Amino acid sequence: MTAAMHLKLINPNTTQSMTDKIGACARAVAQPGTRIAAVSPRMGPASIESHYDEALSVPGILDEILAGEREGVDAYVIACFGDPGLYAARELARGPVIGIAEAAMHAASFIGTSFSVVTTLGRTCNLARHLAERYGMDRFCRNVRATDLPVLDLEKPGSDARRIITEACRQALAEDRSDCIVLGCAGMADLCGDIADAVGAPVIDGVTCAVKLAEALVSLRLPTSKRGDWARPLPKAYSGMLSPFALHG
Amino acid sequence: MTAAMHLKLINPNTTQSMTDKIGACARAVAQPGTRIAAVSPRMGPASIESHYDEALSVPGILDEILAGEREGVDAYVIACFGDPGLYAARELARGPVIGIAEAAMHAASFIGTSFSVVTTLGRTCNLARHLAERYGMDRFCRNVRATDLPVLDLEKPGSDARRIITEACRQALAEDRSDCIVLGCAGMADLCGDIADAVGAPVIDGVTCAVKLAEALVSLRLPTSKRGDWARPLPKAYSGMLSPFALHG
Amino acid sequence: MTAAMHLKLINPNTTQSMTDKIGACARAVAQPGTRIAAVSPRMGPASIESHYDEALSVPGILDEILAGEREGVDAYVIACFGDPGLYAARELARGPVIGIAEAAMHAASFIGTSFSVVTTLGRTCNLARHLAERYGMDRFCRNVRATDLPVLDLEKPGSDARRIITEACRQALAEDRSDCIVLGCAGMADLCGDIADAVGAPVIDGVTCAVKLAEALVSLRLPTSKRGDWARPLPKAYSGMLSPFALHG
Amino acid sequence: MTAAMHLKLINPNTTQSMTDKIGACARAVAQPGTRIAAVSPRMGPASIESHYDEALSVPGILDEILAGEREGVDAYVIACFGDPGLYAARELARGPVIGIAEAAMHAASFIGTSFSVVTTLGRTCNLARHLAERYGMDRFCRNVRATDLPVLDLEKPGSDARRIITEACRQALAEDRSDCIVLGCAGMADLCGDIADAVGAPVIDGVTCAVKLAEALVSLRLPTSKRGDWARPLPKAYSGMLSPFALHG
Amino acid sequence: MTAAMHLKLINPNTTQSMTDKIGACARAVAQPGTRIAAVSPRMGPASIESHYDEALSVPGILDEILAGEREGVDAYVIACFGDPGLYAARELARGPVIGIAEAAMHAASFIGTSFSVVTTLGRTCNLARHLAERYGMDRFCRNVRATDLPVLDLEKPGSDARRIITEACRQALAEDRSDCIVLGCAGMADLCGDIADAVGAPVIDGVTCAVKLAEALVSLRLPTSKRGDWARPLPKAYSGMLSPFALHG
Amino acid sequence: MTAAMHLKLINPNTTQSMTDKIGACARAVAQPGTRIAAVSPRMGPASIESHYDEALSVPGILDEILAGEREGVDAYVIACFGDPGLYAARELARGPVIGIAEAAMHAASFIGTSFSVVTTLGRTCNLARHLAERYGMDRFCRNVRATDLPVLDLEKPGSDARRIITEACRQALAEDRSDCIVLGCAGMADLCGDIADAVGAPVIDGVTCAVKLAEALVSLRLPTSKRGDWARPLPKAYSGMLSPFALHG
């Protein structure tokens, strides 16, 4: 049973080349009946490398979810490794919403006893650790390793990013004694297969994992539960430039 | 991309009617290209309701995995809520192996902030709690509730099982304040949709979840990592009636 | 040594009567040399009762922190029990930033072996639990209890809020066997003393606690560490209506 | 009060020389009134070095417990560091059943603030960590170190096992800063005293610890509780070559 | 092998009738070769029912350990359920020192999946919970229940203590669904067998458990490790009435 | 509002030069209205470097608290990094009692995501780790590092203590990747500012933190809760040289 479904993939940063790249990765693993819309929000940071950037990516994400609900989207993927706005998005969405850090970490726990995350800047490592804890995946996470690559270097053709990331994965396997690698940035999605071949171990990209998990939950007719925290927010007044975000009863 | 794949669904108990039922549930959610073989082992207990039963279901499961590897099976589902023999199975298998407790608990964590397990006999409740801990899902598991139904009552047409389980799900939602329900026995797979309708909340069956997760991992070309604990077991002598289980180099 | 200091108290919701009320509570406990500016942001929700409201309160908070840094503010208090935007605010601020949930929970751990939180809507209870975990205070938090009062009812003269909250505190002490009570909403700050008298146990309001902690850290010359996660965010482009938030090198 | 008691020591692998050796170690510490029967099962692996080997050692262990109950055995020791089949065995036994990993880790926690485990193959390290967690002993376990010695090398007179293990214990004390050492394999039982002398720190062998704990529990008239999980398994049909394991009402 | 050994049982309170009673219980389970000296310290509280009493019981305990080391004592039992001064005592002692809470909780974890503690005053319940955590036994401890009996009521012939404690044990089994009971006061040692008979479940007294564990460790030649925290304290000056406690180099 | 208050600072060791030094540090940060009495107890060890020393420092501390209650002291600071006797002191005191380890660790968690403790002798490291756990601060504590300086070397003018401690702080920042440093001994209080300047990161001294926290709690009219564990101890007989410690009804 492969019903047609409409999946919206939100790249929370506003860099279109990255959005196009991860859209392509997503389509490469989707089922025949899945239509994938890959979008960047209308507002927000060019890349997400701090709590500040992350917090300010959320209005744009929620704007896309609100639009998606009007369009009848079946499920969403939030394609930034910090999973920004995940719980707020779940309040708005009827169907499932999956973050790519969440997806990658869960997938890792099915195929190995331990994983290492290889990410961009060192200042985001604690963020990944907090997510691992929130999802119950800290038991499996041996380490979070920074390459100190800025996110947008992943978009620069001449950068040394691929080599640096591959090397960091190799180190993680050897020093952390992890069974597999989780890539810590949506912008690394296109490198996943090549790195796996190079290092001889499973390498997990959250974008493609999240697409398959979202498809799975839609197939299983499992929506976001509206019984608890993730019930639809109450209608109320919003002021200033955020007044368009007011929900109505 | 929906490649053809061969998925083996192992019901660890030897009750054929249950195997047939859960095979049907699995096929109802599978992708068009997925071929599902639902089997019961050649040896073992008629139902699994104790550590003793569980331990003695494992040789039969491993026998099926060994056969599956010879037949080129792409992924396995172990369809008993105790996930018996999961790690030993992963040592033998090249592709992924998914347990239904594992699958259901992870799925629950994507669509709610908390779940309650509704299961059969009280003496198996700790087993479910240990699994939740092992998978990092204890953060989300508010309670494990026994109905005190023996497993095989689920196969008896005249039994009151459906009503009793539905009632226990209702109580769990009200008293545990959980967002969704995880059904704690493969034999409840066919009741999932009806109970969800009756109680007005997501109800999760591990058999169908595990099928979709196994399909997802195969699509993502993510095998079981062979770098750590789950490397293939070393060849060695086995004696007595277990001598057929000896692996060769 | 009581140096003059400038403390900015940010009520993350845009309801001015609440801002005025908690400003008065703050001033009542401040040292003579402390100047307190109590503000509501220029944008955002009228009250915060969901992850959605909370996420959308953060741009307004960060706008106030950015302004505060230009004005030479010594320390900030974020006066909503969800501590929205706390880590992003710390990235921007040179001095300390204290959330009221954080302040109240820590204070409780100094004067009792356990506390119960009494808050507004049930859907925010998990949020308080997540904060307790993040701060290491879950060991002391016996329960989070909702009164099911909407936040803005606390501002309505004729509402029954005081009686309902007092009753919930009494129940918490009796049923949870907690040593003290933490009030779970900034809007309850003015009720703290009366409830303590009524229930005969310490009752803790985060607004006043946060003011005293902020004063203490400034007196101790302890700024926010800029060595790790909370270093100043990198300059980069922001687009759409959030472009004013772009930081410059 | 030293009553006569009958203690059965089950070496879960089928290597008789190891069974004889650990039987001798057990007898050397037993009380005068304790009769120790050291046995290998009638079926199963020659050594246990994987989840697969461990799972397939359990039927033989349970076969020995069933026989022991018919013979009036007072307590059992399962003498493999993975404590295979421990909970299933407790379901069958009236008296106590002690695993050697459990016994050694608990003993370590009485005489030091921390211990390191020194074991055989690296692939079994996670197994030891899982046991430490299950028993609540992970707080005390600083490290699990593999020597990469196959289990049966411990039985080879000319092997370098003693030197390699002693060296690993020395490293553990120096690098992990542990207070004492737990030997991670029953086959090391005879080395315990010599290694302790060589490294100048307490070295703990689980076989002898388990014997003393079993004697203690029998002296204290403390049986396995039959109120919960470890009640006797329900009678039911078993099929195939495992049909002799069916219990009768 | 049952060597002669000298075991000192220290009742940290100064109530001689309780010391005599628990000495008798200890001797009833000891091996033939074990000589048990049961003592009360020369200074300290008549009973231990607060952190204050507990702290002030420690000088007397340490005084007895210092004397015991001069007398060649092989092992010590500290017979108060708060295990007062345990770590300081281990610094002084060459042989093992066992606390009765520690002993009872560990024993409980060998014979059941869960236990409830039944103790005296409610204000000591957190103390028992902290010990359970420190020993890694919180996983097994379902509840700590107070009877609100003062400790010295256990010594009064006409008191209703036996009935009240038995009733609390019954409630614990029913409501906590625990597999066994741990008695939370040394003064209950003589009631253990009768209560077990009355409630039909294992009931564990720490005094007798600690004696058997101490004997076991001495038989195994396992001393207190002197490599870490529990090395002998450094010699130094002590002043005032505590000057006799100064150790010399 | 800065009410006059009387704060008693207890240095649990009997070395008067250290008492004077930390009294001066405390007064340097106190509010104008705060009167600080810095005392050493009348009995106990010259320095605290073991569980034994710590246990025997407690009678002297409690003696000072008893005197303080008669004198109307508003709050207490226990100025030894092991926080000896903290809970017993809280039982006696009406107002708040703050330990310096507790104060420093909490302060660290407000200004950084992680801290390292730099302390004196290695044998006290576990003690600091246990406190971090007890206070919920283990999440933030990356490491506890010993300098192997005896406590009283901090009082010797010619010692190399300042250089050694500064170097250990530098190493901690670099190797542990911590955001800030907690000084692990009251005797280091006077070095705090200089080391912070030298290493370029926040360095936290517990003595001054505890003074500010105590002032804050008194200003907030938050006393020690008397509802649970920390209710006043029951009156009872004390014997031997501790008989003056008997409380009366």
From TrEMBL, chains A, B, C, D, E, F:
One GO MF term, please?
amino-acid racemase activity
Transmembrane stretches, by residue range? Answer: none
An example Pfam family from this entry, by short name, is Asp_Glu_race
Source domain of life: Bacteria
- What is this protein's record name? Hydantoin racemase
Report the enzyme's class at the first EC level: isomerase
What family does this chain come from, according to its entry? Belongs to the HyuE racemase family.
Q: Which InterPro entries does this entry report, sorted A to Z? A: Asp/Glu/hydantoin_racemase, Hydantoin_racemase-like, Iso_Racemase_Enz_sf
